[in-house]
Design a protein that fits this description.
Elements lengths: L1 H8 L4 H12 E6 L6 E2 L3 E3 L4 E5 L7 H12 L9 E5 L3 H13 L3 E5 L21 E7 L9 H10 E10 L14 H6 L15 H10 L3 E5 L19 E5 L2
Parallel strand pairs: 5-6, 5-7, 7-8
Antiparallel strand pairs: 1-2, 3-4, 8-10, 9-10
The protein binds zinc ion.
Length: 247
Amino acid sequence: MTSIRSKFSNLFPQPIRFGLRRAKHFGFQRRCPACGSRTRRFAPWGNPARQDAICPICLAKEPHRLAALYFDQHPEIFKREGTLVHIAPEPSLAIKLTGLCRRSSMRYISGDIHTPMPDTIDICDLRFEDASIDIIYACHVMMALPDDGPAFDEVFRVLKPGGVALLQVFASPLDYTIEPKTDEERAEDRYLAADPDVYRIYSDSDYCRRLENAGFEVRRFVAGDVDHPDLDRMNVSAEVLHVATKP
Ligand SMILES: [Zn+2]
């Protein structure tokens, strides 16, 4: 019954779909910074399921909500007539970033290596000119690359001086990076075995070091940096966003 209902609701344009979901889930206990909705709770997500994880309106998960909060808090990164590249775009943030770019007269480009629509973009071989992009955003892409080195170098190459790379990764509590050398080791690793698309889980310090080795200046953005009356309703306190700026 649920799938029939969701197929039926997908026939509606996105604003109507979101409106129907907002009416159904409305409440004051949770606030999603990606779509701005107020809901009773976030839905469970993952395997095993994390409680209070995903926005029932726009489907933004915890890292997407922290990124949305960062974009709201830092309008200065949106440069008039500039370009933002969104790699492996999540629908929730694609809607938000499209709106923010339109307001700033920025060009919004999105794409993925796996699909030709809306565009094919390979983070390890970017088709953009040197120093031509203002912002690059990608969530959980770096850890899904067999070799992340070319991606760090490519993102650094195409960003303008002062440009910002937001390349989100799992917020790992471990103090070492898990990075098996072979597929066999990866299949046996207790952290990686559950997800065949993940090649490594970075420690926070190692991820900062890899970004710095590529030439970036790195700052960590966390919920504690923000003074917002609804912060406790967003459930983003366990997340970290590494803000990598090209000097
Ligand atoms: Zn939302």
